[in-house]
Design brief:
The chain is of the alpha+beta class. 48% of the residues lie in helices and 14% in strands. The strands form 2 sheets. A 5-stranded antiparallel sheet has the order 1-5-2-6-7. Strands 3-4 form a two-stranded antiparallel sheet. The N and C termini lie far apart (126 Å). Its EC number is 4.3.2.9. Keywords: Lyase, Membrane, Transmembrane, Transmembrane helix. It comes from Ascochyta lentis. GO terms for molecular function: gamma-glutamylcyclotransferase activity.
């Protein structure tokens, strides 16, 4: 009996111990969590409490507006937002398609002056031509009859109508033939394919819509040869170019434009000629035409009086020129046109500048359009970099003056104008 009672506890002890084994573990875990929580509360109570700014009282107007509020449907509001986002994306896609269409529309533009030079056309003006081809234009001839600024930039390149069948003009015996008038064939240049936006920029920078206006001319692709054909045989195509016809002095006064007594008298500056000759080399124009360009004599200051005259003339007129240039950039629209009052102001400045030259400076300091002693060859003038930079600014200013001065009186034929 004694053995039986002693064995029962021994047999059931493990079962009791097993049933109670989980309880200490769970109680220990709970105690640890409690202790951890108490420690966190103690640390928070001992630390600095966060301070929040007081919330202002709701305005009475907002409370009154709540009378018109309606229950919000969050799902419907979310759908409305999604519709608005989708609509905006669709508008963006349509706008992108329209831009792409505009990019696909191109213009063939004929260049023959400083725009032949990559530094000017692609660098300064920022034009990105799509393609280009060298051409000859039998109906036009190259001229240098756009009045510039005496002593600095006497004239700039232009084009004039040409009769291919007309005989070459013969100069008077006492008047030496100007080298720049010796070219008797058609106008040689480069036709660039550009976007419409780039062409609008060209018009704005070249004085489009005023002194210049847009015309269409027949162009013929030049063959790969050293000479320019007098009668091109390649098929013609149309290209746009900027044209400023020479006006009679009376017509020029009526149109607020400057027209010199002899449009062929002035010589271009060495800086401006270099842009054209560099461009002809870059575009690989025929050697015959390059030879002609290199033989054009630039305007060169040869006396101390001319040097003094240039310094005084630019000192007097440069502030007015810079003012006109700054105002033009601020006032012109996307087509390069400025208000009428600005056109009148520019015309007055340009006319006053040339009036002071004809009345005072030419008589006192010497010729500011043509080299004194031009009968002799061999005068070459390479401007310093500072002079070239200043004269480049003068070129931009003259384009603005020519642009604004003739703006009010320009009338375009609907079949000629592009923009």
């Amino acid at each position: 009996m004694a053995s039986t009672t002693s064995t029962k506890p021994t047999r059931h002890a493990p079962q009791a111990g097993a049933s109670m084994a989980g309880e200490p573990d769970s109680s220990v875990s709970g105690c640890r969590k409690l202790v951890s929580r108490l420690r966190w509360l103690r640390r928070r109570s001992n630390g600095a409490k966060r301070v929040f700014a007081p919330v202002p009282k709701t305005a009475q107007a907002r409370l009154d507006a709540s009378l018109n509020d309606r229950p919000l449907d969050a799902a419907a509001e979310e759908k409305e937002k999604e519709k608005e986002k989708e609509k905006e994306k669709e508008e963006e896609r349509e706008e992108e398609k329209e831009k792409q269409k505009q990019k696909e529309k191109t213009v063939l533009y004929l260049a023959y002056g400083s725009n032949l030079c990559n530094e000017t056309f692609r660098g300064v003006r920022g034009i990105k031509p799509i393609s280009q081809v060298n051409v000859v234009v039998p109906s036009l001839r190259l001229t240098f009859d756009l009045a510039g600024i005496p002593y600095a930039e006497p004239c700039f390149a232009n084009s004039a109508r040409r009769n291919p069948n007309a005989p070459a003009p013969t100069p008077a015996p006492d008047e030496p033939r100007y080298h720049k008038d010796r070219w008797q064939k058609g106008l040689v240049g480069v036709v660039y394919e550009v976007t419409r936006s780039d062409y609008a920029h060209i018009i704005a920078t070249e004085g489009g819509g005023a002194s210049y206006h847009d015309i269409l001319v027949d162009c013929h692709v030049l063959p790969s040869a050293d000479t320019v054909p007098a009668n091109p045989t390649t098929a013609p195509f149309k290209a746009h170019t900027l044209f400023a016809p020479t006006l009679h002095p009376d017509e020029a006064r009526a149109a607020d434009r400057i027209s010199r007594p002899d449009p062929s008298y002035a010589q271009p500056s060495a800086r401006y000629l270099k842009l054209i000759t560099d461009g002809a080399t870059e575009c690989q124009l025929p050697a015959e035409y390059q030879h002609y360009l290199h033989n054009i004599r630039p305007y060169t200051i040869t006396t101390r009086k001319q040097t003094a005259g240039k310094a005084l003339f630019t000192a007097i007129w440069m502030p007015f020129i810079l003012l006109i240039l700054a105002l033009s950039r601020r006032l012109q629209d996307d087509k390069g046109r400025a208000p009428k009052w600005f056109a009148r102001l520019a015309a007055m400045v340009f006319a006053g500048m040339w009036l002071s030259y004809d009345g005072v400076f030419k008589k006192t300091f010497g010729d500011g359009e043509r080299t004194i002693g031009d009968d002799a060859d061999g005068i070459v003038f390479e401007p310093y970099s500072d002079d070239a930079e200043k004269e480049g600014l003068l070129e931009d200013a003259v384009e603005v003056l020519n642009n604004a001065a003739g703006q009010e009186n320009l009338t375009l034929n609907s079949g000629e104008s592009l923009v």
